[in-house]
Design brief:
404 residues, alpha+beta, AhpD-like, Jelly Rolls, 15 helices, elongated, binds manganese (II) ion
Length: 404
């Protein structure tokens, strides 16, 4: 199929009669609008690159590609694919940058862009390695959660530990599809994909998600670099979205600094005088029911079982129910640090040393540390008949994220 035919099918015949990548013609977009072309070329090719020296040429090309895909460009995307090839980018990199747009823009923009890139490859007789997937139906959830964990923190790996059935649908889709199907592919490394995701979201202007991915980029790159990457989106998304992105960057930088202080707390174990009870050993047997790291020391194994549980900052157990036919339930006595207890459908209650919580059998609840503090409580098993524990889904980041 001729390029012109494909462009007509894509509804772009009117935009572009011919292009500089096909043998039939040499015309660029805006061949009759030379003044606009000059303004665009000067801004895009001269002024923005001069203001953004930290962003490598290859990354500039990739940011331009995903920006054009997100903005549903036809004529300029076709030119950019040819430029990227001329700059030495591999066709696999170009295609993977376009694929990376799918989970953020949806398939329609991505599929149209793939067709345009393929038409340029065909005109230039560029061959592509077509085997770039690294996951299977069985491995995509774990591999995706691993990528998510690398970029956003261990919580995302922990959430996927119990598989699809233990996860809310949206979390499962994000881990298996958004991260598992795309971030794991060959052709672009994880850090480059995260840069491109941020660029896609700058172009889309979806603020909460953009802020999260700016935060992920700040773990990999300096704030100056991120700012310059955002400027490379400006010619494609315009000033309003660029200004919004710069504001979110400022907010994320401030929050990252605050978060770094919290992370320092998390790394260092509590001192000797922190509690009269020891921290105990890693709570490996129950780790699958916890988000984050916890420690257990059985104070009493006879008469009434009493366990001393220590939670690192932000660690909490999943929603669970202590079942009993008669009696049963659990008593918590906070002994050190600061934490929370929450019953299903009720607000979380802050716990400080000396606080006591009586949990009746059959009540769905969770307990754990505050986001910025270690926490320790004694957990007393109230004797009863037919007692058992039922472990349920993790506390959502949305709910836990509201706690101070
Ligand atoms: Mn409990």
């Amino acid at each position: 199929m001729k390029l012109g035919t494909i462009m007509t099918m894509l509804g772009m015949g009117a935009v572009l009669a011919a292009c500089d990548c096909c043998p039939q013609g040499e015309a660029k977009a805006l061949s009759q609008d030379k003044e606009l072309r000059a303004v665009m070329d000067n801004f895009t090719q001269n002024e923005v690159p001069a203001a953004t020296p930290l962003v490598e040429k290859r990354e500039v090309e990739l940011i331009r590609l995903v920006s054009l895909v997100t903005q549903q460009s036809g004529a300029l995307l076709q030119e950019e694919v040819a430029t990227a090839l001329a700059q030495g980018l591999a066709p696999e990199e170009i295609l993977e940058a376009i694929y990376q747009c799918a989970p953020y823009t949806g398939f329609p923009r991505t599929v149209d862009a793939v067709e345009i890139a393929r038409s340029v490859f065909k005109a230039k007789n560029v061959k592509v390695d077509e085997n770039r997937a690294t996951v299977t139906a069985q491995s995509r959830l774990e591999a995706g959660a691993d990528a998510q964990g690398t970029l956003f923190g261990q919580t995302f790996r922990d959430m996927a530990k119990n598989g699809k059935s233990g996860m809310p649908t949206i979390n499962y889709f994000l881990a298996s599809n958004c991260f598992g199907d795309y971030y794991t592919r060959k052709g672009l490394d994880l850090n480059t994909r995260e840069l491109l995701t941020m660029a896609i979201l700058v172009n889309l202007g979806t603020e909460p998600q953009l802020k999260a991915h700016i935060g992920a980029n700040l773990k990999i790159r300096t704030a100056e670099y991120v700012e310059q990457a955002i400027y490379n989106c400006l010619p494609y998304c315009g000033y309003p979205r660029t200004l919004n992105a710069l504001r979110l960057l400022k907010e994320a930088v401030a929050e990252t600094k605050a978060g770094a202080a919290g992370a320092t707390v998390a790394k260092s174990m509590p001192g000797k005088d922190w509690s009269v009870f020891p921290v105990g050993k890693p709570n490996d047997a129950y780790a699958k029911y916890f988000v984050g790291k916890s420690y257990l020391d059985m104070i009493s194994k006879e008469q009434v079982g009493v366990g001393n549980v220590t939670f690192e900052p932000a660690c909490r157990n999943n929603w669970h129910i202590h079942h009993a036919k008669k009696g049963g339930g659990q008593i918590l006595i906070a002994t050190a640090g600061r934490g929370y207890y929450q019953e299903w459908g009720k607000p979380a209650v802050e716990l400080k040393p000396g606080d006591v919580v009586n949990i009746p059998a059959g009540v769905k609840h969770w307990h754990g540390a505050a986001p910025d503090s270690w926490f320790q409580h004694l957990a007393i098993e109230v004797p009863g008949e037919g007692t058992s524990n039922e472990w349920l889904e993790p506390v959502s980041d949305e709910d836990y994220g509201k706690l101070k």
